[in-house]
């Protein structure tokens, strides 16, 4: 996965944009097509205290609503920590939007003012598809792309 190329593409496509949903749609599209092992790529947005709702995504349908108390996405939103899940069967409370999902990476996404906008969720049909390097590279890109998001 060439994160430098992805970063350049997103910097060009998102330049000057502050609408969070437009930014999410662009990231979901480009990341989904760039990452060889992501079979579902998208965002869940913070729409109320302790509540996520689906945002722009690529792949099969995703569940619409996730409280911070549930799932891998809820854990990322609740803790503010990246969740790297090599085997979803071993994650207590994993929410299976597709029975084919084997591993997952979920990152919290903040704007530059420190407001939690939502989480970025990557699901793979391959076990252990995501690494610390994926999490670190994507966190750096999200921090820059969503810096001025409203
Ligand atoms: N697996 C996620 C739910 C989102 S669907 O996978 C797109 C979770 O456990 O939070």
Q: State the assembly state of the protein chains.
A: single chain
**In percent, how helical is the residue content?**
25-40%
Overall number of strands: 6
* N-to-C SSE string, H for helix and E for strand: HHEEEHEEEH
**Total domain modules:** 1
Structural class: alpha+beta
Find the CATH topology: Beta-Lactamase
Could you name the CATH class?
Answer: Alpha Beta
Number of helices: 4
The largest sheet has its strands arranged as: 3-2-1-6-5-4
Whole-Å distance between the termini?
A: 29 Å
Question: What is the radius of gyration?
Answer: 14 Å
How would you describe the shape?
Answer: globular
Q: Which molecules are bound in this entry?
A: methionine sulfoxide
CATH architecture: 2-Layer Sandwich
Question: What does this entry look like structurally?
Answer:
Strands 3-2-1-6-5-4 form a six-stranded antiparallel beta sheet, with helices on both faces. The chain has helices at residues 3-14, 20-34, 71-79, 132-145, and strands at 40-48, 51-58, 65-67, 83-85, 103-110, 116-124. The longest helix is centred in the first third of the chain and has 15 residues, at 20-34. With 150 residues, the protein is α+β, with helices and mostly antiparallel strands. The radius of gyration is 14 Å and the shape is globular. It contains four helices and six strands. The chain has a single domain (3-145), classed as Beta-Lactamase, CATH 3.30.450.40. The model has no long low-confidence stretch (mean pLDDT 98). Methionine sulfoxide binds next to α3 and β6.
């Amino acid at each position: 996965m060439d994160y430098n190329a992805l970063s350049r593409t997103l910097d060009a496509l998102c330049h000057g944009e502050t609408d969070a949903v437009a930014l999410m749609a662009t990231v979901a599209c480009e990341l989904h097509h760039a990452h060889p092992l992501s079979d579902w790529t998208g965002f869940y947005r913070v729409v109320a205290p302790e509540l996520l709702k689906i945002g722009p995504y690529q792949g099969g349908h995703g569940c619409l609503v996730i409280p911070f108390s549930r799932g891998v996405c809820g854990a990322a939103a609740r803790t503010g920590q990246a969740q790297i899940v090599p085997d979803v069967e071993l994650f207590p409370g994993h929410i299976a939007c597709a029975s084919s999902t084997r591993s997952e990476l979920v990152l919290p996404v903040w704007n530059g003012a420190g407001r939690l906008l939502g989480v970025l969720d990557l699901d793979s049909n391959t076990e252990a598809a995501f690494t610390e390097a994926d999490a670190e590279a994507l966190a750096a890109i999200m921090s820059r792309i969503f810096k001025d998001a409203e």
